Structure prediction request, 188 residues.
Amino acid sequence: MNPDALLLKSYKLELGCGQRPTPGYLHQDITIQPGVELDFNCPIWEIPLPENSLSEVIALALMEHLRFAEFTEALRHIHQLLRPGGEFLFDLPDIKIWSEYLYYITHGSPEKSPFSREHVFATFWGWQRWPGDEHKCAWQKDDLFRHLRDIGFSDVIGGDPQIFLSRGISRNRFQNPADAHLYIRAVK
Prediction:
């Protein structure tokens, strides 16, 4: 489909929609899932939309699946696609807290972790259910905020899942504070 025709459909884009595409967004993923219609089946940095064309980009449980260089390339392209004032909303595991859970499990105190060994390991290395379902990067909050500002995002806010819930988007982890994620709103 013509990128301009797609923009008539929505000025919002969901990256890595997987098996659960969010209504009201254009959808991108590199893995085709049964019954999911993608607008873009390509890497994030190859999405063929005009600069300054999107008001919002979301990525739920996606960014940790990118290598560090890909993460940066994706951020640069997202920044280009967003209009001034446009928002990039995403989450990724809070590596500081998950490292504590891993420490408990690997140092003889698994009862201190709110999650099983398998869940903690999967948070570090992905669930590995299909190719691409591996985790390839992790960020500490301060480093991530600095990186987003270096890319050109002017306003970077870390918060709670309310940034998604206020848009009618919900995931099980949003209801469980122990399932520690960084919820990020970065504004162009």
User: Anything to note?
Assistant: Helices lie at 3-9, 68-81, 95-106, 117-125, 141-151, 162-165. The first strand starts at residue 12 and ends at 15.
